[in-house]
Specification:
about 90 residues, mainly alpha, 434 Repressor (Amino-terminal Domain), 2 domains, 7 helices
Length: about 90
């Protein structure tokens, strides 16, 4: 998966607009818009800021997708109440 595709996937999973991602990452909206409009890969410093907004390290961002990674990403997006409910469900599965 390409870097911009992965950013887009993570952004959509969280339900974030580009403007909200800019706010969370400390980047300008024009910086993010330029990445998409020019279809260019971000500089490491920009990607680090984006990853920080998503609560990821660069290593986690570049790790190959598998079921465990998807599960972790989805759990991170849950509310505290939903996390507790999921934990209880998992405890009941034998």
């Amino acid at each position: 998966m390409e870097i911009l595709e992965k950013i887009e996937l993570l952004r959509k999973e969280k339900g974030w607009s580009i403007n909200y991602l800019a706010m969370e990452s400390g980047l300008t909206q024009s910086t993010l818009n330029n990445l998409y409009s020019r279809n260019t890969e971000p500089k490491i410093s920009t990607l680090r800021a984006i990853c920080g907004a998503f609560g990821l390290t660069l290593s986690e961002f570049f790790r190959e997708d598998d079921n465990e990674d998807e599960l972790i990403r989805r759990v991170k997006c849950l509310s505290q109440d939903n996390k507790k409910a999921l934990l209880q469900l998992l405890k009941n599965i034998k």
